[in-house]
User: Fold this.
Amino acid sequence: MIEVLFYVFAAVALGGALGVVWAKSPVGSLLYMVATLASLACIFVLLEAHFLAAIQVIVYAGAIMVLFLFVIMLLNLGHDYQRDLKGGAFSLLSFVIIGLMAGVLVRQFGENAITEPTAGGRAIDAALAQHGAVGAIAQPLYTTYVVPFEITGVLLLVAIVGALVLAKKGGR
Amino acid sequence: MESLQPISGPWALIAMSLKVTIIFGVLVLVVAYSTLAERRVSAWIQDRRGPNRVGPFGLLQPVADGIKNLLKEETLPATASKAFFVLAPMFVLVPSLMTFAVIPIAAPLPTPAGIVDMIIADVPIGILYVLAFSSLAVYGVVLGGWASNNKYAFLGGLRASAQMVSYEVALGLSLITVLMMSGNVTLTEVVWQQQQLGMWFAFPLSLAFILFVISAFAETNRLPFDMPEAESELVTGYHTEYSAMKFSAFMISEFGHMVTASALMATLFLGGWDLPGTWDDAFWHEGQLIRGFTQDGVIVLANPAWWKTVLTFGGFAIKTSFFMLLYIWIRWTLPRFRYDQVMALGWKVMLPTALAYAMLIGGTILVLDEVGIRWGFSYGLALTAVSGVATAGFVFFLDRGRTIIGAAGQSRQKVSITGISQPATAGD
Assistant:
């Protein structure tokens, strides 16, 4: 059952990803992207990573993509869209990237595919049982990795301030 | 005495399909009748009669509306983008009906085959599931506005996206205090911790309750926050071009959102299905259905019964209906905000207040735990006192001496300017 569901969601995710590239209007691209993100969230649920799935939907599908949609609509893009990213060089580049990705995947999972739960997997199970779906991520994030976490926060803050400064300059 | 085990095997499958069918059916029925309730209550508030011709007391009005909408002509504007125009009502309808799955509606029901939890899916992420689906609901509104290729509809869609993103922040931040109190995100645990505390979270987290109610009104696009469909400015906003069943889908989803938001407010802040007293408490703790702990931490087993399930479901229904009534009552009482006022309230008042309040409650919980007060009624009372002060400050600041000091002060002002009817200070 889980395997069947995995293939369904994987197919939707891949189809959505292709749709992002092939769709003619930016709004269509965006919707395909949402479909991809949502089916990735479903795959996370199949892997029992419920919290990641929820965050995937809330942050990416629910907030970031809505902002994208807002910008696309506000700038009124998509009515006479130019095919500027679909030149020959780009398709060649994309095939090279796809080939490299496939090579990495085959190397990783082709010969020594993981079938037994690893030590890391067992540790995750134990953390889930002890702290619950959210605590299993929050516990290490706010204890062991608190410094990198805070640095990431500062980085984002810097980016926001930078964006504000740029926007102000353009307005004058 | 039946076994106190969760239901399993083929019976679990039957119980699950029955639960899904019944809860979904009742939800759709409630949604249909809340449209009638809105029209009857509005008529009552405005001293009219309201729809009372179809069936006794107009009770068959939703059926008549449904038939009318099915038989009307579906219009499709020539310049609309067809695929998105058809997809938008579905995008808005599905999330609004799916969120109800994680809300516990009554105490567990004992059957000969085992105990049935009165919740469709007790997922480990509870509240986050609700937030995820409510954040997806905005797509339908925005797409509907964009795909119509109509300036009014487009403006409505734009407003919807900006407003929903803004108020989701305040909504999430006001939820953080609830999560700090309950220690987990599953809604069954939120109900259980309120039972253990001996009081509903509306008291110890009064300011979060107010912020959540305001944000929920904005998220459901109800007056005074119905900027996306403000009919005096935008015809009817994002669904201007929609007719017949597609329009009906937007309406159903609006009421579906209202029912879900009401049930959520009841669960988070009014104890869900909990009734006063500890006789109905029940929670799965390490494989056992328990009622609570004694002073020494010994488990007290719960004693589920069918009448407890019925009574607690009645409690849940009353609390949810109260919030539904509040939605309708406010719609026909308050005028609409201006759009800049909506944004200013969201970003300059709600967000900082929710943030400061989360810090305050976090600090108070830390102090109470350090002092060593047990999780219980006195714990709740201490938090109620702190929150009461914060709420009083918030209301006083928001009011700026307009309502609390009262009409008496304003009428004295008016008398001093004799003869000239001065417009009230509302515009500034």
